[in-house]
Amino acid sequence: MIHAVRLATSSDLDAAALVLAAAFDTYPWTRWAIPADGYAERLEEVQRLYLNHALNHGIVVVDEQIRAVAAFLPPDAPAPNEHTQQRVGALHGPRLAALIGLSLPQVPAGSWTLETVGVNPSLQGAGLGTAVVAAGLAIIDRQGGAVALETSDARNVCLYQRLGFTTAATTTVPEGPIVYSMNRATQSQ
């Protein structure tokens, strides 16, 4: 099945954040990184903040009905502004210290990052995630960029491998999930 996808606009932000919050509800990383108290609300707000940053500095792709979303940042994207960083820190609450102390492999120099991808849980497995990621990758490929990502769900590794990523490292987070760091070399057009 072919899914119609497009670049997101600011008017898509709330709907896209809801999709990501639903998709990441049981995700190992977010369950580890976000406190259980008010988890759903914290998760949705974190997703909205990061999506807004990606919308302003990178590429956000959605399907026409906003059931799937993928966000990419270029290698020269600035860090989120101070207000956003403070709010994200507050949303992580007591987990912030563990996040700050975490050491994951560096993204290869000059690489874009696939920051997030999520699909409405009732539609997962229908190709929507592949469609939004592939559309973002196609844009990056036209610019000649490599792409890196991290995932904490072993099931995602196969999806990303189908899209040309290879696993560069596997990190076991103390008292947390396993993180798969993956890279995709620059694709020639």
SSE arrangement, N to C: EHHHEEHHEHEHEE
CATH class: Alpha Beta
Q: Count all strands and give the number.
A: 7
Return the average pLDDT rounded to an integer.
94
The percent range for strand residues is 15-25%
Task: Give the SSE map.
Blueprint: E1 5-7, H1 13-23, H2 28-33, H3 39-57, E2 59-63, E3 68-73, H4 82-92, H5 96-101, E4 112-119, H6 128-143, E5 147-151, H7 154-162, E6 166-172, E7 178-184
Parallel strand pairs: 4-5
Antiparallel strand pairs: 1-2, 2-3, 3-4, 5-7, 6-7
Helix pairs in contact: 1-3, 3-4
Give a concise summary.
By secondary structure, the chain is of the alpha+beta class. It has seven helices and seven strands; from the N terminus they run E-H-H-H-E-E-H-H-E-H-E-H-E-E.
Architecture overview:
InterPro entries: Acyl_CoA_acyltransferase, GNAT_dom, Trichothecene_AcTrans. It holds the Pfam family Acetyltransf_1. This is Ribosomal protein S18 acetylase RimI-like enzyme. This protein has a single domain, classed as Gcn5-related N-acetyltransferase (GNAT) (Aminopeptidase), CATH 3.40.630. It is 41% helix and 22% strand. The chain is built from 7 helices and 7 strands, in the order βαααββααβαβαββ. It has helices at 13-23, 28-33, 39-57, 82-92, 96-101, 128-143, 154-162; strands at 5-7, 59-63, 68-73, 112-119, 147-151, 166-172, 178-184. The two termini are 25 Å apart. The mean pLDDT is 94.
